[in-house]
């Protein structure tokens, strides 16, 4: 009977963690029953994993993710919801299809998902996002500035002035505006410790980014912004009195590095040579990145942390597997083509469709 209820259409959201904890032993016992077919065992296993993950959530956290209607932003939202948190995603395109897909996937869970259309390069639009988040999820504990564009992979001198302007507006001005609104909102949340994560990418550590000169320049500035805000938030600014309205609220700012992810930003204008290396060695699919980074985000403490997917250890391991052990890429074949998983859908550029 417990198994039948589990595999039935999703019921209304559970009212609390206590309900999930009471159901878990019964579901596990049903999953281990010898008479359960393999396919149903798989469904039970997924449900058990989801419920077990939600037991780790002492209380739902409020999360805002810009650029959340696709790519790694969508994967972040998926992972936060699986852990029972409340999420607002925004995107310059209508995020409603993404919201509906996530609601369908996590129906019956503790997480909540909301979406709004936002142009991060517009101060008015970003202000509306902050107000929307406050209205929908109340307290914002994590704000992830994920939205970004690269203008295509091409020589800098071939870019139009409109493209240069768009990349700077989204990647730099957009992060500035979103960070400003996030901090202003978080400083009104007395008794709450909250975190802003600014996404960095190619160019962040210096060095050349041929084909992505404009993109690299915008990402290079984000560690400096983060370092400046860490000092301001921790020590204040000489000659200025602390804001009394922010007393009792602790706001932290960090950088977040998802590394190379198989999204439009990576695969648009790519060549077989690039896809074989470095993409075939270092890049990962959005869910893999989110499964690694979301727990790290939730575990972040202090101020000015660097949260990374491609850590030094991970890079060295991938190089050892590829160039010493001869392990082939699970994503790119020997000719530089994207390996397509049977049953999955892909865009023309090789990006896997998420919903």
What does this structure look like?
- It is a single chain.
- By secondary structure, this protein is α/β, with parallel strands linked by helices.
- Helices cover 47% and strands 11% of the residues.
- It contains 12 helices and 7 strands.
- It has a 7-stranded parallel β-sheet with strand order 3-2-1-4-5-6-7, with helices on both faces.
- β2, α5 and β3 form a beta-alpha-beta unit.
- α2 runs antiparallel to α3.
- The relative contact order is 0.10.
- The N terminus is likely disordered.
User: What is the residue-mean pLDDT, rounded to a whole number?
Assistant: 88
Please count the helical segments. 12
- The coarse overall form would be globular
Report the portion of residues in β strands: 5-15%
Biggest beta-sheet profile: 7 strands, parallel
What's the alpha carbon Rg, rounded to whole Å?
22 Å
Q: What is shown here, in short?
A:
By secondary structure, the protein is α/β, with parallel strands linked by helices. It is 47% helix and 11% strand. It has twelve helices and seven strands.
Secondary structure layout plus pairing:
Blueprint: H1 2-7, H2 17-31, H3 38-55, E1 62-66, H4 71-82, E2 86-91, H5 96-105, E3 112-117, H6 123-137, E4 142-145, H7 161-186, E5 193-199, H8 213-235, E6 250-257, H9 264-267, H10 272-282, H11 286-299, E7 306-308, H12 312-324
Parallel strand pairs: 1-2, 1-4, 2-3, 4-5, 5-6, 6-7
Helix pairs in contact: 2-3, 4-11, 6-7, 7-8
